[in-house]
Amino acid sequence: MPGMPPTQPNEAATHRVLPVETARRLLRRDAYPNLVRLLRKLHGSECAEILAHLTLSEQSRVLERIPDIELATTIFTYLDEDTRRRLIPQLSTARLVAIVRVLPPDDATDLLRTVSPERLQEMLEQLPETFAAELNKLLSYHPRTAGGLMTTDYFALEDTCTVHEALERLRRASQVETVFYVYVVDMEHRLVGVVSLRQLVMADPETTLRTLIGNEVVSIGVDEDQERIAQLITQYDFLALPVVDRSGRLVGIVTVDDIIDVISDEVTEDIQKFGGMEALDAPYFHIGFLQMVKKRAGWLTALFLGEMLTATAMSYFEGEIARAVVLALFVPLIISSGGNSGSQAATLIIRAMALGEVRLRDWWRVVRRELGAGVVLGTILGTIALVRILVWQAISKPYGAHYLLIAFTVASSLMGVVLFGTITGSMLPFVFRRLGLDPASASAPFVATLVDVTGLVIYFTVASVLLKGALL
Amino acid sequence: MPGMPPTQPNEAATHRVLPVETARRLLRRDAYPNLVRLLRKLHGSECAEILAHLTLSEQSRVLERIPDIELATTIFTYLDEDTRRRLIPQLSTARLVAIVRVLPPDDATDLLRTVSPERLQEMLEQLPETFAAELNKLLSYHPRTAGGLMTTDYFALEDTCTVHEALERLRRASQVETVFYVYVVDMEHRLVGVVSLRQLVMADPETTLRTLIGNEVVSIGVDEDQERIAQLITQYDFLALPVVDRSGRLVGIVTVDDIIDVISDEVTEDIQKFGGMEALDAPYFHIGFLQMVKKRAGWLTALFLGEMLTATAMSYFEGEIARAVVLALFVPLIISSGGNSGSQAATLIIRAMALGEVRLRDWWRVVRRELGAGVVLGTILGTIALVRILVWQAISKPYGAHYLLIAFTVASSLMGVVLFGTITGSMLPFVFRRLGLDPASASAPFVATLVDVTGLVIYFTVASVLLKGALL
User: Fold this and answer.
1) How do residues B349-361 score in pLDDT, each as one tens digit?
2) Which of B14, B170, B292 minimises the CB distance to A373?
3) Are A201 and B9 an interchain contact pair (Cβ–Cβ within 8 Å)?
4) Chain A neighbors of B190, CB-CB under 8 A
5) What is the ipTM score, two decimals?
């Protein structure tokens, strides 16, 4: 790292100034060898950060022209998905093929998924036949399954192999992404065990791998969903998880760095759905304005159409409002309390479901718990409202002669609405999951909309019972 | 793995039936050696799952009585935080000391943080002096910093060491948690480089480590926040990150498995705050009922007190409502639209901030973008409302002679409220971060409450201007 005092590696790592202007100057002078020298000194993720400051045409010139294809490929892998997507059409097919040849198979597959069908065909024809066949196989899996995430760059040996042989072969293996584990297979390439590189280094060189493996191995089927992989890797603290086909044959591995990205992406999706919109699938500043508005307008309009029912509900009680305008004053307070308590309950359950803490069959335990919570929370808010109305009345008498009846109407409606909101909010994620939908779509705004109409009905029904003969 | 056909390891791994009843039976008969044999066949996380089905006293008997202390310790590390916290007071100090001796230093520190000060003193006295000193040092760091998360179980060698020597020493090292990397230090134990175990296995045995290291190393300061570590590990795809003190000396490492837990915990906290409550800090079914209600009641009450301002705001317009009851019908629709659009905008910005996509200095870019989004979204909802009122009027004439004025009042109020909600929702996370608060607290309910009062004022102000002389 140039120009940094060696005594402060922590400072250096966290507050590094990137040579963006130098890179741009070299690019303007077509000084590609110098540019390579500059970039080689940096980590791939830092090169990618420099590129993020350049225009699209500058970016594509860097990747297309620098003579060091390994470097170009490393930079490419550290670019964010969105930049990659925009760059690929700018690059020549020859350069893309060169990049694909250097990429690990899982990343190569991700790249190939984004090119047009014609170009894909053209590229596969220019690749060595066996590699093309391997990529074709990987392309056949759904991108969000183990098959779609895995790499075929793993290191597997037969169980009859000795530790000495294994270390020798490892020394000769060149391009394997993860050799933290050696996968042990039988003669039919069925996975029978896993040996860590550390076990290998520490073992007696003459023993066979079979003696090192335990009598169990955790693996995942090729069609399993990425969320399940994330759960397994988190639970077992693995660095990589072997992927097997239906007959138990080892076909690839999923590594922890890809899973961290999956966890982060899934969470972003959940949070955005929870905020009441479609998942953006791109960073905030990278997504186009119109596309972003479209993703937000859809749900907002749907919620709005649902919320229109409140106007319909209110019109049924127009007579009551005309006779006792004071009732209208508490409408926002009551419906928002239902919405807030519902949104709390929904958040809790959605997150607990995502973490696997709460399952579908737990719904009845949740109902009992939330029933209790709803009663307590409703009583708290109801009591506050009661006190508030009595205090205001004592000060400035805004509620007339029937203030006590009004206070009790508002307080008991609040109890009902909060209880209803809590139960609705906690049950909606269960209903969504049961219907095969994502529980995260049971968003705060969705719950609020559902609770608002019912809240109005509860309020005005309580009012017409309690205030009959007095105000109504 | 007993009783599973070896051809289906994928099925076996994902749908395993745990021998909970067998374990309970052995426990009832005090057959601890048999219990050890049963549990040894399973992964630590599976043993922990079995314990989750037992009562607290059964759990503590398993951990206290089984003769195999290594197994007891492994099971202990896989228990969730909450179970560990409840179990620790049940275990004897002798057993806890035995467990601490086997645990890696970072986990040992976590355990010691949860015992009483007196017991901590007692335990430290029973441990070997140098280990106790090491643990005391680790206890001095804040648990959410690099120092608090790191382990001192790393493998470091001086840069003059040869590859052959390094492999020999590695073979003799017994209890090191992560030997995926060998950390290379100078004579003063300052970190100068990192060599992966793979590089080591592949290198010429006679070269020194100095020739294998690059001219840079990424590390993190001992006081850095855990969120920063998560960002670095995600960005650089590291399996472990070295931690250095102010003078660049290597003091520990943070491993990727601990960071996955950090990422997950931080997200849960953000999501729960975003749902309008305090972070629970425990799984849904594990937290006590009263404690959960307390964490929910706090925010709910605060929001309720804020929302009471709507009743005050409405009372200012009581005269208008009395003269034109029709105005009251649209109150829920208008305020909820402001809340929904605000909650969308807040979600987007909060998540983008957590991912580092949007920074404090980007606020003006966000304002410009959200101004556009607010106008478009407001126009969409306003138009829908206009059409809806006109259609209803054509069908059943509920809005009287001034229906056109009412339609325009509602439509233009919606535009104003949605625009205001969008700007408020997107700016609130910036305000919170600027004030040093967590942006995630700018929750959907919080934004909605803020927008509700203003929404009412906008609506009734527009109404009094447009309807003056007609209805008002």
Assistant:
1) 888 887 777 888 8
2) B292
3) no
4) 6-7
5) 0.71
